[in-house]
Amino acid sequence: MVATLWMFSKGRDVVKLQQLLNKTKTIQSLIEDGYFGKNTYNAVKLFQRNNGLNDDGIVGPQTWRKLRVQDPLTNSSSNSSTDSNGTTTKPSTGTIAETSEGFCFPFTELPALSWTNGGRQFRAPRSGGRKHAGCDLKFPPGTPIYAVADGVLVRNPYSFYSGTSAVEIRHGELILRYGEIANGSYTGGSSVKKGQIIAKVGRLNSGSSMLHLEIYTNGASSASLTTRVGELRRRSDVTDPAPYLNVWKNNLPRL
Questions:
Q1: Per-residue pLDDT tens over the stretch 231-254
Q2: Do 45 and 106 have their domain in common?
Q3: Contact 58/222 with Cβ under 8 angstroms?
Q4: Looking at residue 80, which CATH number applies to its domain?
């Protein structure tokens, strides 16, 4: 089985990747430290572009094949690391409990209205038989939005809904769509840090304002989040953000 690696992965598979990238001699030499940081991410994207691949920064089967590897090291977790005491640790794999420490709430305070009821909740009815694909966090226009964890930009800001924009960021094995943000407000760059201001709440044409948050559990997929099928009109790995938000609300960003 081929290991899939992305930014913030750790372990021997990442060392193997860094060694292979260094052998290509088409990039600046990487430190072979087993950490998939920004330099390794940029090197992967450059290698992918040079070899006719989609430069998404994810090292999957196609990228491994271009590196002339059919079955890279997979005995140790591609996302694990060993500390100075010899204890193996793993970052979040995207489960709700495992995001309790590495993730924070996207605002410095909780909204006055709950994201678990009314039209703000996941699967709330919408026009045309469609159902709501995320949770809405109601705040005034211009309210700063914070990255919920360290992450990598998946898709640059784009026109989203009713005069607002959206941006997609991979946080570990989760992909978050930060929707209904103010046009031109994204300041996160190609990678973000937990608790970093990344955008501002936008104003809909109706005058309402909120962060529309969607969560997807397959961080390795580069498929479009929006589809034309199903009640949600979203990718099959879309999930209810409420259980995550109910955990993250106990960890507000530090000012």
A1: 999 999 999 999 999 999 999 998
A2: no
A3: yes
A4: 1.10.101.10
Selection from 38, 70, 39, 66 nearest residue 52 by Cα: 66
Note the pLDDT of residue 75.
40
pTM of the model: 0.71
Which of 89, 118, 144 marks a domain boundary? 89
pLDDT of residue 138: 98
Instruction: Provide the pLDDT confidence category of residue 73 given band limits of 50, 70 and 90.
Output: very low
State how far the Cα of 117 lies from the Cα of 197, in Å rounded to an integer. 27
- Say what angle helices 38-50 and 12-24 make with each other, to 10 degrees: 50
Q: Which two tokens stand for residue 43?
A: 């090197």
Which of the residue ranges 3-12, 19-28, 47-56, 172-181 has the most confident prediction, judged by mean pLDDT?
Answer: 172-181
Q: Which domain holds residue 39?
A: 12-89
- More reliable by pLDDT, 229 or 99: 229
**Residue 2 within a domain:** no
The Cβ of residue 20 has, within 10 Å, a number of other Cβ atoms equal to: 18
Kindly state the helix (H) or strand (E) to which residue 88 belongs, with its residue range.
strand 88-89
Half-sphere exposure of 65 (CA within 13 A, CB side): 6
Sign of CA dihedral 97, 147, 169, 27: negative
CB 181 within 8 A of CB 202: yes
Which of 55, 89, 123 lies at the terminal end of a domain, its last residue?
89
